[in-house]
Amino acid sequence: MNPPQPSLRTRITDLFAIRHPILCGGLNHLAIHDYVGAVVNAGAMGFITPRSYASDAAFRDGLKRCAEITGGWRFGVNLYVSARPEQNEALKRFMAIAIEEGVRYAETAGYRPDAFLPALKAAGVTVVHKCTTLRHALAAEKAGVDAVTILGMEAGGHPGMRLVGGIVQGALVPRALGVPVVLGGGIGTGRQLVAALALGADGVLMGSRMTVASEVWAHPDYKRRVIEADEGATRVVMGIFGDNSRVLDNRTAREVGALEADGITDFERYRPLVRGPYQREAYETGDWERGTLSLGQSCVFADRIAPVAEILEEIMAEAVAVRDRIAALNGRQS
Ligand SMILES: Cc1cc2nc3c(=O)[nH]c(=O)nc-3n(C[C@H](O)[C@H](O)[C@H](O)COP(=O)(O)O)c2cc1C
After folding, report:
1. In whole angstroms, what separates CA 268 from the centre of its chain?
2. Tell me, what's the pLDDT at 74?
3. What spacing in Å lies between the alpha carbon of 155 and ligand 1's midpoint?
4. In order of start, what are the domains of the chain with their CATH numbers?
5. How far is 275 from 61, CA to CA, in rounded Å?
């Protein structure tokens, strides 16, 4: 059966064989098979985060379950590359498992993906690399990725040390690259999707907007906090170590911010606050004051807990209406 045609067809809908020009980025702890399967079934592309699983075997099982949910292998994995090679050992295992199982798409992020591209390309995996500067976008294109996601400073997770806004990235990066470009950071509405296309992007990436989806396993109290959050409810932390994160502005983030304001560079002082298990516990218990919880300014657009398909349909309906409204604008004839 052929999938329905995209209402907004771009190079990204063609590249990922999806109905909507929307990628849903990796969400550590949260982007597992249920959520990613729902994203793919709703007509967008999602990426499973391998570290969300307790073991390699559980990750492999998660891939198989996603294939069952989607009826095939047309979904993605997120491969977060560290600048320190010794930290990429797990990544190599994740990549090998994904390739063995037959996963068709990958979102690389973090450090440059060059070392991993030959294996991915040899396996026929389509790769979109996520980065925060024009320079890294050009380098990724040169290295052979199929598409690039460029993030603005509004983004949850790692918004880049230079903190360039999305509207600048969107006007800057697509016209400098030959490969399709996806704009991310702060996006959660159809009107922003049309704006991204107007800037020259071929699609958008969303993360924070999707954290409240019904298929995301996190505790309802966490989701309620995201829904209440306004556009100023996040904070950029850990810049003192040269790799910052945009997170929910909670008690932990403020404690981290206070250490940074004091100029403390001893990581051991931060470790008790930023440990990964605290994030997981926060999602499990709903105690959102605990841990540094990635979240971007687009949390303001998360207005209710709803199925992925409903969120994406609402965004696409608005995008099509906005496109038509703009197409109907007529300048005064002189
Ligand atoms: C809760 C959460 C966890 C994230 N975990 C990851 C991750 O493990 N790997 C990654 O590449 N990006 C991660 N990100 C970033 C997203 O994939 C995406 O780049 C970002 O959310 C886009 O900006 P937005 O939040 O404004 O939509 C995470 C974001 C959030 C909100």
Report:
1. 29
2. 94
3. 7
4. 11-210+309-325 (3.20.20.70)
5. 26
